[in-house]
Design a protein that fits this description.
- With 373 residues, the protein is mainly β.
- 8% of the residues lie in helices and 38% in strands.
- Strands 4, 5, 6, 7 and 8 form a 5-stranded antiparallel β-sheet that branches. A 4-stranded antiparallel β-sheet has the order 3-2-1-25, with no helix packed on it. A 4-stranded antiparallel β-sheet has the order 9-10-11-12, with no helix packed on it.
- It is globular, with a radius of gyration of 29 Å.
- The termini are far apart.
- The N terminus is likely disordered.
């Protein structure tokens, strides 16, 4: 059945300038209904069909508003690509988070301002295994591998590598307890604890060997690649690569103090910790070249982490925006407060792409791909 020509139909006398636009639209609608009643379907416009085929995950819940609030954000998740020159042209943060519709925590990276967020491990890779959230992953210096503690159905607790080139897990060993991963500078050896022992895994040959154990609450291979710093309760010891003690550094605190959230600067010039056991918690930075030099700040909501630049550290904070979301609530932008340990200057940096892909809170784990200053 063909469409009726408007030009030669009984409607023609009605289509005059004096006739209202609304009446014309109503008459045409009636004509369309009469046509469809004869058995023919009127094909919906192509644009409408395309919109109906879009994923529904962006049309439900409050998180959909993040994409209208920031229309420049991509809706499809960006993946990190091994060896991509643009991605690794700047220092990046390593963090864990989950995408709203995936319900699986995984690892991501981003530039220092939070932009260019990229998923490192696809959620589908976590078949019958889960990251142990309290164990800090460590990325190899060449950025190819990430050492992780896993909880698996097959082996229980394990130490594994994620190979960003082959997109596969590499099993290193079983083992429980904190791993405290360290990489050698050539990215060929990862050193870790497992079930009360100390191991070296040689990546090229996939060989696991036991090392002389260095007892610690956390072990850190310093940038010289030869010296380990072992975190004790309220002091630290320095060991050579084979585990022999070089120096014991007593920080002068009494036995009630413990050092929590302990970190070592990527440049090997400071240690950081939050005090516990001596009154209100405080942030401490100890200069490793002269442990008597100490910087102390009151403890805020979040602890600090080291920057990609010497003598600078970051702390995270939230600030309510002036743009409401559809349900009457408000967005909260995330900021980094950069603090200069030498000059005491502070600088606020807005973290970009906050809440992209329904990604709520993020846990910043480390800074990597740092360029030599």
């Amino acid at each position: 059945m063909s469409l009726i020509s408007v030009k030669n139909s009984l409607l023609t006398p009605l289509l005059t300038k004096s006739f209202s636009r609304r009446a014309i639209i109503m008459l045409l609608s009636v004509a369309t209904l009469l046509l469809t009643g004869c058995g023919d379907e009127v094909k919906p416009p192509e644009k409408q069909t395309a919109e109906q085929e879009q994923p529904s995950r962006f049309s439900k819940g409050n998180f959909a508003y993040r994409h209208t609030y920031h229309p420049e954000w991509p809706k499809e998740v960006r993946n990190e690509v091994y060896g991509d020159k643009e991605t690794f042209s700047t220092p990046r943060i390593l963090f864990s988070a989950d995408i709203e519709w995936m319900e699986q925590t995984t690892l991501f990276s981003a530039r220092m301002d939070g932009s260019d967020r990229r998923r490192i491990i696809p959620e589908t890779a976590f078949t019958d295994k889960w990251m142990v959230g309290l164990h800090k992953p460590e990325r190899s210096p060449d950025n190819r591998y990430i050492a992780l503690s896993m909880d698996t159905t097959e082996h229980g607790f394990t130490r594994e590598l994620w190979d960003t080139k082959t997109q596969q897990f590499i099993f290193m060993s079983k083992g429980h307890g904190y791993a405290h991963f360290n990489w050698t500078k050539d990215s060929e050896n990862v050193i870790f604890y497992a079930s009360g022992k100390h191991y070296n895994y040689h990546v090229p040959t996939k060989t696991l060997t036991e090392r002389p154990i260095i007892y610690s609450n956390g072990l850190y291979l310093l940038p010289d690649g030869k010296t380990f710093l072992a975190h004790k309760k309220n002091e630290y010891w320095l060991h050579d690569f084979n585990g022999d003690v070089i120096e014991k550094v007593d920080l002068g605190y009494n036995n009630h103090l413990s050092m929590r959230s302990f970190k070592v600067s990527p440049f090997g010039d400071y240690i950081y910790f939050v005090s516990e056991g001596l009154g209100a918690a405080q942030n401490y930075w100890i200069n490793l070249s002269d442990p008597s030099k100490r910087i102390i700040l009151p403890k805020k909501t979040w602890s600090y982490f080291f920057s990609d630049k010497k003598n600078k550290v970051f702390s995270k904070y939230l600030k309510k925006t002036k743009k409401p979301i559809g349900t009457g609530g408000f967005f909260y932008d995330v900021y980094l407060e950069e603090y200069n340990l030498i000059t005491k200057e502070k600088k606020s940096i807005l973290i970009k792409e906050t809440n992209i892909w329904g990604m709520g809170s993020i846990r910043i784990l480390d800074v990597f791909n740092i360029k030599d200053e």
